[in-house]
Write a structure and sequence with these properties.
The chain has 337 residues and is an alpha+beta fold. Helices cover 28% and strands 32% of the residues. It has helices spanning 143-149, 152-172, 198-221, 257-272, 280-284, 292-295, 317-335, and strands at 12-17, 20-25, 31-35, 42-43, 54-58, 64-68, 75-77, 80-81, 86-87, 93-96, 99-104, 129-140, 177-181, 184-190, 230-246, 249-255, 276-278, 297-301, 310-315. Strands 12, 13, 14, 15, 16, 17, 18 and 19 form an eight-stranded mixed beta sheet that branches. Strand 5 (54-58) and strand 6 form a beta hairpin. The longest helix has 24 residues, at 198-221. The termini are far apart. The relative contact order is 0.12.
């Protein structure tokens, strides 16, 4: 009989210092911020590091991503500057300012002849709750062209700033960034079993407008070859949600057709030349509001992976901004009586 030895180390960063190595564990959360500011998960006292410099996020797949948050001097993985979220691999060398770290995520070492029952170790939690959710996907348009025309340092600052401010905006509007995907983000709002009230949906729309305004502000701040543009898809429906990941760290996430359709709806905005595309269920929850017909028009689109055309309701950010302004005024007038 072969003796079994199981070595399971949690993912961590190794910080090399004159006093010896420091270990920064990547557990207990699904993201960790790095910077000089005291509000970061990992505070690094390096004058070349920005107050909010970078972030490491673990996805529901278990992968770790490094996301630069618009730092002035950049974040580097194995000597290459990060401009979009980069997947980290075990033993990757990270550089922030003049501070060097090593990312470690050792694999579970196990003798396959030992007969250990993997399931008994509770390595992966199960998605087991069906919930009504709204999924928002927002994508930066023409990003590939931008990477070819823009200096790498400026590109890193622009995209990092966009990711950082997007995270703040979505948190302020009742959700969080569930995924950073190259030049896109995904956020999920959870609703009660009784359905979605219009106030909840208006909060999501407010997040959209805030994101749009941040994008315009960045366009005006940096010397870009063309203005930054974004598109968004929102879909509402039921999905299986729950804690996914290892027993050391779990991540509340959603899977299923509702999520997939949100990505497809975002892509459809390019086909119909609109900024925002809503799923039918999403539109249903705002259909009774005043001026909604002026904001979102009905289209039929061919979503990738779907056999028949799909109905969507689409509009522009300017139309949505006017709609929210009128809706806010209407609610204020109602409160007067």
């Amino acid at each position: 009989m072969i003796t079994t030895i199981v070595t399971l180390q949690p993912p961590h960063l190794v910080l090399r210092t004159e006093a010896g190595d420091r270990y920064l564990p990547l557990v207990g959360n699904n993201f960790w911020t790095i910077g000089r500011g005291k509000d970061n998960a990992f505070v690094l006292t390096d004058k070349w590091i920005s107050r909010n410099h970078a972030m490491i996020q673990q996805m529901d797949t278990g992968d770790f991503y490094l996301i630069d948050l618009g730092s002035r001097n950049g974040s580097f993985v194995n000597g290459r500057r990060v401009s979009i979220p980069v997947t980290l691999k075990d033993a990757d060398y990270l550089l922030f300012g003049q501070t060097e770290l090593e990312f470690r995520s050792p694999d579970l070492k196990m003798d396959i002849e030992s007969g250990i029952d993997i399931d008994s170790q509770d390595f992966t939690a199960t998605l087991n709750v069906r919930r009504l959710i709204s999924v928002m996907v927002m994508d930066i348009r023409d990003f590939t062209v931008l990477t070819r025309k823009l200096d790498e340092r400026v590109l890193s600052e622009v995209i990092g700033s966009w990711f950082r401010q997007a995270g703040d905006i979505i948190r302020n509007n009742g959700s969080w960034v569930d995924k950073y995907i190259g030049d896109a983000i995904m956020a999920v709002w959870f609703h009660g079993a009784e359905g979605v009230n219009s106030t909840e949906m208006l909060r999501i729309f407010q997040a959209l407008i805030d994101l749009y305004e941040v994008t315009e502000e960045l366009s005006n701040t940096y010397p870009l070859p063309f203005p930054l543009r974004v598109g968004a898809g929102i879909n509402t429906g039921y999905a299986m949600v729950g804690n996914a990941g290892s027993s050391e760290r779990s991540d509340y996430t959603a899977l299923g057709d509702t999520v997939n359709a949100a990505f497809r709806l975002e892509s459809s905005t390019k086909e119909i030349r609109m900024d925002i595309a809503l799923g039918e269920e999403t539109y249903k929850y705002i259909s009774e509001l005043e001026n909604v017909d002026e904001t979102f028009k009905q289209y039929k689109v061919n979503l990738k992976g779907y056999d028949s055309p799909t109905i969507t309701y689409a509009g522009t950010f300017n139309h949505l901004k006017n709609f929210l302004g009128k809706e806010l005024l209407s609610q204020e007038n109602k409160n007067l009586f």
